[in-house]
Specification:
Mean pLDDT: 93
Largest sheet: 7 strands, mixed
Low-confidence stretches: 259-264
Order of helices and strands: HHEHEHEHEHEEEHEEHEHEEH
Structural class: alpha/beta
Radius of gyration: 22 Å
Helix content: 25-40%
Number of strands: 12
Length: 378
């Protein structure tokens, strides 16, 4: 009996058309934080196996077809990069930044069941959904003009609810402007107010992935006061499958761990079955590139972002970006441009994100089309 998959001709044509469409769409997007620059072709043989990382990556399972040993190395790499406490860190490879944030908020809720969550109005929409799922009370904090949290408003709001434990979600790169909240400053506010019971989570979806490689390192990690950090793996690093990494203090994880007999390990993650291919991709990337390669990747992308900002300004567009970021913000262009280049827009503003794989030639093409469209409209 032959159980191999074989498509009918009509569906084969449909698949070929989809491949062409995906290729064209990838070439022409600038508005979303997804890296185009990666090559995992040496890992293709692994796609024929059902890689499934059940349960806690640091505890063996009775299911052995997985990549948990590599997953542990990935988590350790980022724990060191984010200056986690030497003997108090843990984590796993997630399905993306939203799951990482959900996990951190879950930890915070179990630690402080009566805690109040504070997050800025520039926070990713998934956080509000996560808070609803976890039934956690929250207060939205104003943002500054660049998208960074208004620390005076944060302090005022905490002072009005200082009888409650404080849970702060800090953005290390907001969705539209890639603004970074200052974790050290947030921790200083809590210390100054003598708030004993607190938890700080850093949502580093995009910016957290490369902030450690900046010459002026932003205050975003464990050494600055964070208790957990979540990043996306398919953004700065790049992956064919959306994924992420969450790193938290192990002493907090221990509060939610429970044994599951039939898989022979602990249930410490959000999902039961976890994708075993994503840890493989991330492991391959960090081992291939290393610290030096990732730093070079970041600096090259930052150079392209600076070039894009300069070129937009040269044609009279008031573009701007936050310090040492890949996101260039400018007034919303014509719909034709937004649609072709897949630009995310909000409140009259759009942005391009100069991820690894974006070249000067691509920016030049984008600028030329901006000029041509403006002349047609004019």
């Amino acid at each position: 009996m032959n159980n191999s998959f074989k498509l009918p001709p009509a569906d084969t044509s449909k698949l070929e058309a989809l491949l062409a469409s995906v290729g064209a769409g990838t070439a022409n997007f600038l508005g979303y934080p997804v890296s185009k620059e990666f090559d995992y072709s040496p890992l293709m043989p692994f796609l024929q196996y059902p890689l499934n990382n059940l349960g806690d990556p640091f505890i063996p399972s009775t299911y052995s077809v997985g990549t948990r040993e590599l997953e542990k190395e990935v988590v350790e790499f980022f724990a060191r990069l984010f200056r986690a406490p030497a003997n108090d860190w843990w984590g796993y490879v997630t399905n993306g930044g939203s799951e990482g944030n959900l996990y951190a908020l879950y930890l915070a809720r179990e630690l402080y069941p009566k805690g109040m969550v504070y997050y800025s109005s520039s926070t990713h929409y998934s956080v509000q959904k996560n808070l609803h799922l976890l039934n956690m009370p929250s207060i939205v904090i104003r943002t500054q003009e660049n998208g960074e949290m208004d620390y005076d408003d944060l302090e005022n709001m905490i002072s009005m609810h200082r009888h409650l434990p404080v849970i702060v979600l800090a953005n290390i790169g907001t969705t539209m402007t890639e603004a970074r909240d200052d974790v050290k400053r947030i921790r200083q506010i809590l210390n100054r107010m003598a708030i004993r019971h607190h938890y700080i989570h850093a949502d580093g979806a995009l910016s957290g992935s490369y902030s450690a490689f900046l010459e002026e390192r932003p205050a975003f990690d464990f050494a600055d006061g964070a208790n957990s950090i979540a990043i996306s793996g398919h953004k700065f690093i790049g992956s064919p499958i959306p994924c992420g990494v969450v790193v938290a203090q192990k002493s907090y994880r221990d509060r939610i761990a429970r044994s599951v007999a039939y898989i022979g390990t602990l249930d410490t993650t959000i999902t039961g079955s976890r994708n075993g291919h994503s840890p493989l991709f991330l492991w391959y990337a960090v081992k291939s590139l290393g610290i030096a390669g990732l730093a070079a990747r970041a600096h090259q992308a930052l150079e392209i972002a600076a070039y894009a900002e300069e070129q937009l300004k040269s044609i009279g567009i008031p573009a701007w970006r936050n310090k040492d970021t890949l996101t260039v913000v400018f007034p919303e262009p014509e719909e034709e441009i937004r649609r072709k280049w897949q630009l995310a827009s909000e409140n009259g503003w759009s942005h391009i994100i100069c991820m690894p794989g974006v070249t000067k030639a691509l920016i030049d093409t984008f600028i030329a089309e901006m000029v041509a469209t403006a002349e047609l409209v004019g």
